[in-house]
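Everyone, carefully examine this protein record:
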Amino acid sequence: MTKPVRYLLDTNILSDLVHHPAGPVAARIREVGANAVCTSVVVVCELHYGALKRGSERLSQRVSQLIAMLDVVDLDDEITSHYAEIRCALESEGRPIGANDLLIAAQARARGLVVVTANRREFDRVPGLRVENWLE
């Protein structure tokens, strides 16, 4: 029996969803089903930071409402070996990625999730990671 595909939504994808609740991301979530999507605790941190930085209470509320509807993947021991392998591989190629993206990639790879992001430039470098862009 084939395991159902699950998608980890990155910061830029959820940000687009906050700003365009009837846009392409929402349409794709309806196609795959709400149970097929999740996000990372790292993404939640980035979204809350962005809303606070903008100083918008309305945006903060919209972010909180969206996060409350999602399964949030925590950091755990399961990702540690993936983190180390990915970081070593990318550094040896002289093509490291940002610290938060590295954590997100390790979570997704460890749990067999597809990262959904508009930042393919970084995530496509990660060996063994499946990546999609729902904004293309």
Q: What stands out?
A: Residues 41-54 form the longest helix (14 residues). The chain has one domain: 7-132.
